[in-house]
## 1
Amino acid sequence: MMKSVVSTAMAVALSLAMAAPAAAERSLRLSLQVATNHPVGENIVFFADRLKEISGGEMSVELFDSAQLYKGSEIPQAVSSGAIDMGLVLIDEFAGTIPAVGLFSVAFMFPDYDVLARAAGPESEVRQSIDQMILETGARVVWWQDYGPVQLLSKGEPVIAPADMKDKKVRVLGKPSGDFIEAVGGVPVKIGGSEQFMAYQRGTVDIGMTGTTAIKSRKLHEVMDNVTITNHAQTEFLIVMNEAVWQDMSDQEKAWMTEAAREAEMKMREETKATNLAAQEYLASETDMKVVTLSDEQIDAWRQASAPAIDAYIESAGDAGRELVDSVKKLY
């Protein structure tokens, strides 16, 4: 009788196990400093959904958004050390230890969006060189997120000419953007993306610097009066992964990851230009913020005034930086 009961119980347990959906064989933890309804966060959600779908549920991603675990500046170390499997990071966060990586924040390096797209494309020698530099830190770049051009924000009077920056404290993203501000006579102050609203509200800096869509998503139009469309630099985010975790994955898992990542990257790059233009129109028509568009002559004045920033980048980045600049210029 007891044997019969045990046998029946085992049979029921086995049937339930077979009927239940299989648990993901590999779950990856990913830290991001923005919310999942932020354009960058939405793209990561898309990746997570696609990876689960492509792998048939064998791989999943657990998201920790809004800097629950780490700030953006902490991601390189957290991922390289294995404290977290994956993380979102502004490319400039690597520029402190690898100066050449700051290429995309060098003022007026990219004359238009097409040159940027070619330089940041997966097959680009510029992109591949930067990915390899980052890999040597123990973090593998899984995909790039194009976030669009960077603008200048101000209170009171709008920023029109380089002379308007004289002795003003300006929020920067890292060393390359800091070199730009110093070249035009300003004082660079590094402030994280999530800290901008309070910094502008409190007057920690006189002039802001951020992407067009960030002004809308972070509601910076509530604390700043003007945005000057300089398009002087490009914002590129990276999703990086601990290299030891990557090497531990099977070839099939790597293929699933690569497919989902490529889809996420292409989706965001295709949408970025339209998204940025839509955000600019929103700011002009739906908020009290004044949107200032500069003439070609005014942009040329900015380009000439900021030229020393390119020299500063090359001096800091050495031969690697010079080679990257030459590679970008071949794309003009």
Note: The mean pLDDT is 91.
## 2
Amino acid sequence: MVDISPDQAKTSIHSLSKLMRYMLYETNMELVPLSKEIDFMKKYIDLMKLRVSRQNKG
């Protein structure tokens, strides 16, 4: 992806880092706001859609 679409790769890496940061720092609390959980799931689904579409292309 870096060779084909550097801007999309940059955006994807940034999204992945947000997901990882969330998993590392915000899930260790006893309670997490539902809005943050929903935001996490939306970002995760977006990354998985990208992954699946990339696999289907080759």
Note: The CA atoms of residues 2 and 28 lie 33 Å apart.
## 3
Amino acid sequence: MEEMNISNVDAAKKKAKVIPSSILMSFVMVTFLFSLWGFANDITNPMVAAFKNILLISNFESALVQFAFYGGYCVMAIPAALFIKRFSYKTGIMLGLTLYAAGCLMFIPSGWMMAFWAFLISYFVMTCGLSFLETSSNPYILAMGPEETSTQRLNFAQSFNPIGSLMGMLVAKNFILAKIDATNEAGRQVLRNTAPEKFAAIQQHDLDVIIGPYMILGLVVLVALIIFAIARLPKTAGEDDKTLHLGSTLKRLFSNKKYIEGVVAQAFYVGAQIMCWTFIIQYAENELGMPKTKGQMYNMVAMIIFVSSRFICTFLLKYFSPGGLLMSLAIGGFGLISGTIFIKGMPGLYCLVGVSACMSLMFPTIYGIALKGLGDDAKLGAAGLIMAIGGGCLMPPMQAWIMDQNAISLGFMELSSTRASFVLPLICFVVIAVFGFRTSKVHGHSY
């Protein structure tokens, strides 16, 4: 009887379309948002290294860019979910685009003030908007079509997120890092002490370079806001029910072990992703003496690998269980990060770049596993998974703090602080592998 039920589910999954023709245009519009927040994420990662050089601050202080950026996700996720429940997915998207554009345009006065704290506030406002976008768009994509193909549909939509990320990296490399004054940190230290006016002029030039792309991005987001304002998006099942049922919904979510474990796994995944991508530049610079623009090139290679692997892994989900594939890729990530830590030189950098192939499947698959079967609870449940992006808020500063320390002796070898810092993403992949295993062996009946 159980075998018959499984075959019926498989047959229904094959019959159901991933993207029915009736929702195609709406799907395209919402999928564009995945690229839009991917662009924001990856034009921002290299700014950690840029602000360190421009403002002559420590690794830990410069990593506060990520603390502010991903802090917006953490703080705004629950309010966003409640707002979406009270109104609609479309209204949530529009408010998200408004905050996104406002944060980008706030870079203009931040640069004029030459104040790092003002940039941090701009990043925070921007990602309050991104939190609304992700809290709206991810469950909307899941609910937009047949439930049997919801994870495939989300994986496909998420495949366009790294395309936006790659564009953000290209802009960061060619229009920010390449145009920032070439004076290195040591030279800037000398200028600050001997020619403060010249040092201030270089700082202002470099901050103006940073402002430009964010200002243009803000204008693009405003255009997207206008398009969504006039567009007609389909309603999903249960969207007309405006009653919050907050207490009972939270009770059901907290009693759902698969969901809670998914939130934890997502926090560690996002932490691993942001750490690996943010600090490729520092790894290339500190371990191999590469300039930041060349280090960013390796970041772009990692993103190309990520994009390619995302499409491949989405295809493989037709033949492998999501939990099993997730566990296998987490084990691969663990092995590659081990290489980054213990192998010196270019092989270590290649391992760090290669780990993107293993990360490609993780966010949407963890997301889909955690939300599957939650029904209308998915709106608030999605907020918990977006709050989990707070892993990208806390872990990069922790890794940066390790980078600021001295080298570590293991007895049989000495680890530079840069390589030793990657023990944090190593731990993250262990947590993800455990979740993948439990999804397959413990929660398999519910997925």
Note: The mean pLDDT is 87.
